[in-house]
């Protein structure tokens, strides 16, 4: 095992740690890790990300549920339209995207580059929404209408399907800002959605890609260890700090991805 592989597996531990702390961000780390450090094609990396984040989030969901930090009804309401959109996106939309999106003199925007840039833009928007929002720990007085939840789940599911993310970095802001769920409960609830979306989305990739199962399972097991640590540590951190940290972390990763894509 060389130094790059060791760093990759250490990164897997951090992926789980971040998921346990903030309920999202696993794909924000996993995709760049697989692409920039381990050299995987972005299409393969986004597929692997779905499996890693999905299996890791499944363990995290059980841990959060035991602490009473999961709103199952709201989580499932988001999950149904989301997993349908994720599966259809991974199975049909992503494979149908042309390899060259734009070509001019001296510049070619490839499918892989386009996905990574789109990934970073979505991350940037999610980060800003979490950093600037001031209504952090208010007690929710009402839940929004189901049709709004359905539309939101469908939209986020399509986006996360394209970028190969579990969607936690989008669902946490959505649950806090739209569904009026306190931050710590939003973190736990998002893990239900991320689990369902990721694993169902990954089934769409299994039909179109060759999977390195040995690497993927080992990477995922290390991430599971990380989420167990993260869930434990989250007990000692306030919801306010979690949300701000979530936003800043996402913003930094978005800027890094744009930098890498422009500089290569």
Automatic annotation (TrEMBL):
Q: Which Pfam families match?
A: TauE
Q: Gene Ontology cellular component?
A: plasma membrane
Q: Which residues cross the membrane?
A: 7-37, 43-62, 74-93, 113-131, 151-174, 213-233, 245-262
Q: Where in the cell is it found?
A: Cell membrane; Membrane
UniProt keyword Cell inner membrane present: no
As given in the record, the signal peptide range reads none
Q: Does the keyword Membrane apply?
A: yes
User: What is the top-level taxon of the source organism?
Assistant: Bacteria
- Keywords in alphabetical order, please: Cell membrane, Membrane, Transmembrane, Transmembrane helix
The UniProt entry lists membrane topology as: Multi-pass membrane protein
Q: Cross-referenced InterPro entries, in alphabetical order? A: TM_pro_TauE-like, TSUP/Inactive_protease-like
Q: What is the similarity comment for this entry? A: Belongs to the 4-toluene sulfonate uptake permease (TSUP) (TC 2.A.102) family.
Designated name of the protein: Probable membrane transporter protein
Q: What is the lineage of its organism?
A: Bacteria, Pseudomonadati, Bacteroidota, Flavobacteriia, Flavobacteriales
């Amino acid at each position: 095992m060389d130094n790059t592989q060791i760093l990759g597996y250490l990164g897997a531990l951090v992926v789980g740690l971040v998921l346990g702390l903030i309920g999202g961000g696993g794909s924000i780390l996993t995709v760049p890790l697989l692409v920039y450090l381990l050299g995987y094609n972005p299409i393969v990396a986004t597929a692997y990300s779905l499996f890693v984040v999905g299996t890791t989030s499944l363990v995290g969901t059980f841990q959060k549920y035991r602490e009473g930090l999961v709103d199952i009804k709201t989580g499932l309401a988001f999950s149904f339209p989301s997993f349908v959109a994720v599966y259809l996106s991974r199975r049909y939309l992503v494979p149908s995207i042309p390899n060259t999106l734009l070509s001019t003199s001296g510049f070619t925007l490839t499918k892989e580059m386009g996905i990574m840039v789109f990934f970073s833009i979505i991350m940037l928007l999610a980060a800003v929404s979490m950093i600037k929002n001031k209504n952090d720990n208010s007690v929710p007085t009402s839940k929004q209408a189901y049709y709004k939840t359905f539309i939101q789940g469908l939209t986020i599911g399509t986006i996360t399907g394209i970028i190969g993310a579990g969607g936690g970095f989008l669902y946490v802001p959505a649950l806090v800002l739209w569904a009026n769920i306190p931050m710590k409960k939003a973190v736990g609830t998002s893990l239900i959605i991320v689990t369902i979306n990721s694993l169902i989305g990954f089934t769409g990739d299994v039909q179109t890609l060759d999977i390195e199962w040995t690497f993927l399972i080992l990477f995922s097991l290390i991430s599971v260890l990380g989420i167990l640590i993260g869930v434990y540590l989250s007990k000692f951190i306030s919801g306010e700090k979690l949300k701000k940290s979530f936003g800043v972390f996402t913003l930094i990763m978005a800027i890094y991805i744009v930098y890498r894509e422009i500089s290569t």
